Protein backbone atom coordinates (compact mmCIF):
# COMPACT_ATOMS: atom_id res chain seq x y z
CA UNK A 1 0.00 0.00 0.00
CA UNK A 2 1.45 3.35 -1.05
CA UNK A 3 1.14 6.17 1.51
CA UNK A 4 0.97 9.78 0.28
CA UNK A 5 0.93 12.91 2.42
CA UNK A 6 0.12 16.50 1.49
CA UNK A 7 -1.08 19.69 3.12
CA UNK A 8 -4.59 21.14 3.27
CA UNK A 9 -5.44 23.47 0.35
CA UNK A 10 -2.55 21.98 -1.61
CA UNK A 11 -2.67 19.31 -4.30
CA UNK A 12 -1.43 15.75 -4.65
CA UNK A 13 -0.76 13.45 -7.59
CA UNK A 14 -1.37 9.71 -7.26
CA UNK A 15 0.64 7.55 -9.69
CA UNK A 16 -0.88 4.22 -10.78
CA UNK A 17 1.33 1.88 -12.86
CA UNK A 18 -0.31 -0.83 -14.98
CA UNK A 19 0.69 -3.74 -17.23
CA UNK A 20 1.02 -3.61 -21.03
CA UNK A 21 -2.24 -5.55 -21.48
CA UNK A 22 -4.15 -2.58 -20.01
CA UNK A 23 -2.84 0.14 -22.35
CA UNK A 24 -6.20 0.52 -24.12
CA UNK A 25 -8.41 -0.25 -21.12
CA UNK A 26 -10.47 2.09 -18.97
CA UNK A 27 -8.60 3.36 -15.91
CA UNK A 28 -10.27 4.76 -12.81
CA UNK A 29 -9.76 5.76 -9.19
CA UNK A 30 -12.19 5.18 -6.34
CA UNK A 31 -12.27 5.88 -2.64
CA UNK A 32 -12.15 3.03 -0.14
CA UNK A 33 -10.70 -0.46 -0.49
CA UNK A 34 -13.48 -2.58 -2.02
CA UNK A 35 -12.45 -3.82 -5.49
CA UNK A 36 -15.92 -5.28 -6.11
CA UNK A 37 -17.60 -1.83 -6.14
CA UNK A 38 -14.69 0.35 -7.24
CA UNK A 39 -15.74 0.95 -10.85
CA UNK A 40 -19.32 1.90 -9.93
CA UNK A 41 -18.08 4.36 -7.27
CA UNK A 42 -15.14 5.81 -9.20
CA UNK A 43 -14.37 9.48 -8.51
CA UNK A 44 -12.78 9.80 -11.96
CA UNK A 45 -12.14 7.66 -15.07
CA UNK A 46 -10.05 7.89 -18.23
CA UNK A 47 -13.26 8.39 -20.24
CA UNK A 48 -13.95 11.58 -18.24
CA UNK A 49 -10.57 12.97 -17.30
CA UNK A 50 -11.81 16.00 -15.33
CA UNK A 51 -14.27 15.74 -12.46
CA UNK A 52 -14.28 18.74 -10.16
CA UNK A 53 -11.03 18.72 -8.19
CA UNK A 54 -9.93 15.41 -9.76
CA UNK A 55 -7.93 15.27 -13.02
CA UNK A 56 -6.68 12.05 -14.70
CA UNK A 57 -3.80 11.74 -17.17
CA UNK A 58 -2.74 8.48 -18.87
CA UNK A 59 0.89 8.08 -20.05
CA UNK A 60 0.54 4.97 -22.22
CA UNK A 61 4.22 4.92 -23.16
CA UNK A 62 5.31 4.64 -19.53
CA UNK A 63 2.14 2.68 -18.62
CA UNK A 64 1.32 4.94 -15.69
CA UNK A 65 -1.86 6.89 -15.18
CA UNK A 66 -1.95 9.69 -12.63
CA UNK A 67 -4.76 11.37 -10.75
CA UNK A 68 -4.26 14.88 -9.40
CA UNK A 69 -6.48 16.08 -6.55
CA UNK A 70 -6.43 19.85 -6.06
CA UNK A 71 -7.65 22.09 -3.20
CA UNK A 72 -7.17 19.29 -0.69
CA UNK A 73 -9.27 19.15 2.47
CA UNK A 74 -9.05 16.93 5.53
CA UNK A 75 -11.99 14.92 4.16
CA UNK A 76 -9.79 13.75 1.24
CA UNK A 77 -7.73 11.63 3.67
CA UNK A 78 -8.26 7.88 3.34
CA UNK A 79 -7.75 4.86 1.11
CA UNK A 80 -8.00 4.87 -2.69
CA UNK A 81 -7.92 2.08 -5.28
CA UNK A 82 -6.92 2.25 -8.94
CA UNK A 83 -8.16 -0.43 -11.38
CA UNK A 84 -8.67 -0.94 -15.13
CA UNK A 85 -11.45 -2.54 -17.21
CA UNK A 86 -12.58 -2.66 -20.84
CA UNK A 87 -14.09 0.68 -21.85
CA UNK A 88 -17.22 -0.53 -23.62
CA UNK A 89 -18.81 -2.47 -20.75
CA UNK A 90 -22.54 -1.79 -20.33
CA UNK A 91 -23.29 -3.68 -17.12
CA UNK A 92 -22.19 -7.05 -15.77
CA UNK A 93 -24.10 -10.29 -16.39
CA UNK A 94 -23.16 -13.06 -13.95
CA UNK A 95 -23.81 -16.68 -14.89
CA UNK A 96 -23.29 -19.84 -12.80
CA UNK A 97 -22.77 -23.28 -14.33
CA UNK A 98 -21.67 -26.72 -13.17
CA UNK A 99 -18.68 -28.58 -14.57
CA UNK A 100 -19.68 -31.11 -17.22
CA UNK A 101 -23.08 -29.51 -17.81
CA UNK A 102 -24.37 -26.79 -20.12
CA UNK A 103 -25.16 -23.17 -19.29
CA UNK A 104 -27.16 -20.41 -21.01
CA UNK A 105 -25.90 -16.83 -21.27
CA UNK A 106 -28.66 -14.32 -22.17
CA UNK A 107 -27.93 -10.72 -23.18
CA UNK A 108 -30.46 -7.98 -23.91
CA UNK A 109 -29.89 -5.47 -26.73
CA UNK A 110 -31.49 -2.16 -27.72
CA UNK A 111 -34.42 -1.61 -30.04
CA UNK A 112 -33.43 -1.04 -33.65
CA UNK A 113 -30.75 -3.73 -33.75
CA UNK A 114 -33.00 -6.75 -34.27
CA UNK A 115 -31.42 -7.47 -37.67
CA UNK A 116 -27.83 -6.69 -36.67
CA UNK A 117 -25.28 -9.46 -36.26
CA UNK A 118 -24.68 -10.51 -32.67
CA UNK A 119 -21.65 -12.41 -31.41
CA UNK A 120 -20.07 -13.89 -28.29
CA UNK A 121 -16.39 -13.24 -27.66
CA UNK A 122 -13.59 -13.09 -25.10
CA UNK A 123 -10.43 -11.03 -24.48
CA UNK A 124 -10.43 -7.93 -26.74
CA UNK A 125 -13.10 -9.32 -29.11
CA UNK A 126 -10.74 -9.34 -32.10
CA UNK A 127 -11.48 -11.67 -35.01
CA UNK A 128 -9.66 -14.56 -33.32
CA UNK A 129 -11.54 -13.95 -30.04
CA UNK A 130 -15.05 -14.40 -31.48
CA UNK A 131 -16.47 -17.74 -30.37
CA UNK A 132 -19.77 -17.72 -32.29
CA UNK A 133 -22.03 -15.33 -34.24
CA UNK A 134 -25.74 -15.33 -35.12
CA UNK A 135 -24.74 -16.19 -38.69
CA UNK A 136 -23.28 -19.52 -37.51
CA UNK A 137 -25.96 -20.82 -35.09
CA UNK A 138 -23.68 -23.67 -33.91
CA UNK A 139 -19.90 -23.82 -33.54
CA UNK A 140 -18.23 -26.54 -31.47
CA UNK A 141 -19.51 -26.39 -27.91
CA UNK A 142 -21.30 -23.06 -28.55
CA UNK A 143 -24.77 -22.43 -29.99
CA UNK A 144 -26.65 -19.14 -30.33
CA UNK A 145 -30.26 -17.99 -30.76
CA UNK A 146 -31.68 -14.49 -31.26
CA UNK A 147 -35.15 -13.70 -29.87
CA UNK A 148 -35.90 -10.56 -31.89
CA UNK A 149 -39.31 -10.02 -30.29
CA UNK A 150 -37.83 -9.69 -26.81
CA UNK A 151 -34.42 -8.49 -28.09
CA UNK A 152 -32.47 -11.17 -26.24
CA UNK A 153 -29.59 -13.16 -27.69
CA UNK A 154 -28.78 -16.43 -25.87
CA UNK A 155 -25.55 -18.39 -26.09
CA UNK A 156 -25.45 -21.98 -24.84
CA UNK A 157 -22.11 -23.41 -23.76
CA UNK A 158 -22.12 -27.19 -23.40
CA UNK A 159 -19.84 -29.47 -21.35
CA UNK A 160 -18.38 -26.76 -19.10
CA UNK A 161 -14.77 -27.24 -18.02
CA UNK A 162 -12.63 -25.35 -15.49
CA UNK A 163 -10.92 -23.28 -18.20
CA UNK A 164 -14.31 -21.96 -19.40
CA UNK A 165 -14.75 -19.80 -16.30
CA UNK A 166 -13.92 -16.13 -16.80
CA UNK A 167 -14.95 -12.98 -18.63
CA UNK A 168 -16.80 -12.84 -21.96
CA UNK A 169 -18.67 -10.25 -24.02
CA UNK A 170 -21.98 -10.21 -25.89
CA UNK A 171 -21.42 -7.97 -28.91
CA UNK A 172 -23.85 -6.22 -31.25
CA UNK A 173 -22.61 -4.99 -34.63
CA UNK A 174 -23.31 -1.28 -35.08
CA UNK A 175 -22.29 1.46 -37.47
CA UNK A 176 -19.14 3.11 -36.12
CA UNK A 177 -18.66 1.20 -32.87
CA UNK A 178 -20.08 -2.10 -31.65
CA UNK A 179 -21.70 -2.28 -28.22
CA UNK A 180 -20.89 -4.89 -25.60
CA UNK A 181 -22.39 -6.42 -22.48
CA UNK A 182 -19.88 -7.90 -20.04
CA UNK A 183 -20.45 -11.49 -18.93
CA UNK A 184 -18.73 -13.26 -16.06
CA UNK A 185 -19.05 -17.04 -16.07
CA UNK A 186 -18.60 -18.75 -12.71
CA UNK A 187 -17.84 -22.44 -12.60
CA UNK A 188 -19.50 -24.58 -9.93
CA UNK A 189 -18.44 -28.08 -8.91
CA UNK A 190 -19.62 -30.92 -6.71
CA UNK A 191 -16.48 -31.62 -4.72
CA UNK A 192 -14.99 -31.27 -1.27
CA UNK A 193 -12.11 -29.02 -2.35
CA UNK A 194 -11.54 -26.02 -4.59
CA UNK A 195 -8.51 -24.59 -6.35
CA UNK A 196 -8.25 -20.82 -6.81
CA UNK A 197 -6.03 -19.72 -9.71
CA UNK A 198 -4.17 -16.41 -9.44
CA UNK A 199 -2.30 -15.22 -12.57
CA UNK A 200 0.54 -12.69 -12.29
CA UNK A 201 2.91 -10.84 -14.63
CA UNK A 202 6.54 -11.58 -15.48
CA UNK A 203 7.80 -8.95 -13.01
CA UNK A 204 6.37 -10.95 -10.13
CA UNK A 205 7.94 -14.36 -10.73
CA UNK A 206 10.29 -14.12 -7.75
CA UNK A 207 7.95 -12.10 -5.53
CA UNK A 208 5.99 -13.27 -2.50
CA UNK A 209 2.49 -14.53 -3.37
CA UNK A 210 -0.33 -14.78 -0.82
CA UNK A 211 -4.07 -15.26 -0.35
CA UNK A 212 -6.22 -13.54 2.24
CA UNK A 213 -9.88 -13.49 3.19
CA UNK A 214 -11.94 -10.34 2.77
CA UNK A 215 -11.47 -7.40 0.41
CA UNK A 216 -9.10 -5.06 2.23
CA UNK A 217 -5.85 -4.74 0.24
CA UNK A 218 -4.25 -2.61 2.97
CA UNK A 219 -4.18 -5.52 5.46
CA UNK A 220 -4.19 -8.50 3.08
CA UNK A 221 -0.53 -9.50 3.34
CA UNK A 222 -0.52 -9.24 7.14
CA UNK A 223 -3.68 -11.38 7.39
CA UNK A 224 -2.83 -13.90 4.66
CA UNK A 225 -4.18 -17.41 5.19
CA UNK A 226 -1.25 -18.77 3.18
CA UNK A 227 1.88 -17.47 1.40
CA UNK A 228 4.48 -18.81 -1.02
CA UNK A 229 7.00 -18.82 1.82
CA UNK A 230 4.81 -21.26 3.77
CA UNK A 231 2.98 -23.36 1.17
CA UNK A 232 0.92 -25.51 3.57
CA UNK A 233 -1.33 -24.11 6.27
CA UNK A 234 -3.97 -26.52 7.54
CA UNK A 235 -6.57 -26.96 4.77
CA UNK A 236 -4.79 -24.41 2.52
CA UNK A 237 -2.03 -25.40 0.08
CA UNK A 238 -0.23 -23.02 -2.32
CA UNK A 239 1.58 -24.01 -5.52
CA UNK A 240 3.45 -21.60 -7.82
CA UNK A 241 3.82 -22.46 -11.53
CA UNK A 242 6.43 -19.89 -12.57
CA UNK A 243 6.48 -21.03 -16.18
CA UNK A 244 2.78 -20.31 -16.63
CA UNK A 245 2.92 -17.40 -14.14
CA UNK A 246 -0.03 -18.69 -12.14
CA UNK A 247 -0.09 -19.55 -8.46
CA UNK A 248 -2.91 -21.68 -7.14
CA UNK A 249 -4.36 -22.15 -3.67
CA UNK A 250 -6.26 -25.36 -2.91
CA UNK A 251 -8.74 -25.36 -0.02
CA UNK A 252 -9.72 -28.86 1.11
CA UNK A 253 -12.62 -30.10 3.28
CA UNK A 254 -14.82 -27.16 2.29
CA UNK A 255 -17.50 -25.91 4.68
CA UNK A 256 -20.17 -23.23 4.38
CA UNK A 257 -17.94 -20.95 6.46
CA UNK A 258 -15.39 -20.89 3.61
CA UNK A 259 -17.82 -18.83 1.51
CA UNK A 260 -16.83 -15.21 1.02
CA UNK A 261 -14.40 -12.83 -0.63
CA UNK A 262 -10.71 -13.57 -1.13
CA UNK A 263 -7.81 -11.56 -2.56
CA UNK A 264 -4.86 -13.02 -4.47
CA UNK A 265 -1.85 -10.83 -3.77
CA UNK A 266 1.70 -10.35 -5.05
CA UNK A 267 4.20 -8.26 -3.09
CA UNK A 268 5.92 -5.51 -5.05
CA UNK A 269 9.06 -3.60 -4.06
CA UNK A 270 7.51 -0.37 -5.35
CA UNK A 271 5.10 -0.30 -2.44
CA UNK A 272 2.11 -1.32 -4.58
CA UNK A 273 0.98 -4.85 -3.86
CA UNK A 274 -1.02 -6.25 -6.81
CA UNK A 275 -4.40 -7.92 -6.21
CA UNK A 276 -7.11 -9.87 -7.98
CA UNK A 277 -10.44 -10.59 -6.31
CA UNK A 278 -12.19 -13.97 -6.01
CA UNK A 279 -15.61 -14.78 -4.58
CA UNK A 280 -16.19 -18.32 -3.26
CA UNK A 281 -19.74 -19.55 -2.73
CA UNK A 282 -20.16 -22.91 -1.01
CA UNK A 283 -23.77 -23.80 -1.90
CA UNK A 284 -24.12 -26.87 0.29
CA UNK A 285 -22.35 -30.07 1.13
CA UNK A 286 -19.70 -30.75 -1.55
CA UNK A 287 -20.94 -27.99 -3.86
CA UNK A 288 -19.28 -24.63 -4.56
CA UNK A 289 -18.92 -21.85 -7.14
CA UNK A 290 -15.94 -19.62 -7.90
CA UNK A 291 -16.68 -16.00 -8.85
From TrEMBL:
Which Gene Ontology terms cover its molecular function?
transmembrane signaling receptor activity
Cellular location(s)? Membrane
**Residue ranges annotated for the Immunoglobulin V-set domain, each copy included:** 66-172, 193-266
Which UniProt key words apply to this protein? Membrane, Transmembrane
Q: Name one GO cellular component term.
A: plasma membrane
UniProt-listed CDD domains: IgV_pIgR_like (cd05716)
Can you tell which superkingdom this protein's organism belongs to? Answer: Eukaryota
Give start and end of each Immunoglobulin domain. Answer: 92-184, 186-283
Task: Please name the Pfam families in this protein's record.
Answer: V-set
Q: What is this protein called?
A: Ig-like domain-containing protein
Amino acid sequence: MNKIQSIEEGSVTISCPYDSQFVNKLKFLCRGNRPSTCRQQAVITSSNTQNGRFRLSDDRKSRIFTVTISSLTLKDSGSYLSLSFVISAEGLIEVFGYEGRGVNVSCHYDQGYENSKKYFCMNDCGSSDILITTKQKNKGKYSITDDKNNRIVTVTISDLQSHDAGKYWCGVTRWGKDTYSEVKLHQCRHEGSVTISCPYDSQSINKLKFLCRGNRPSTCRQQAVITSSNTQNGRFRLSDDRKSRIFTVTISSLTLKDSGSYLCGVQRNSGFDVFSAVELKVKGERSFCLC
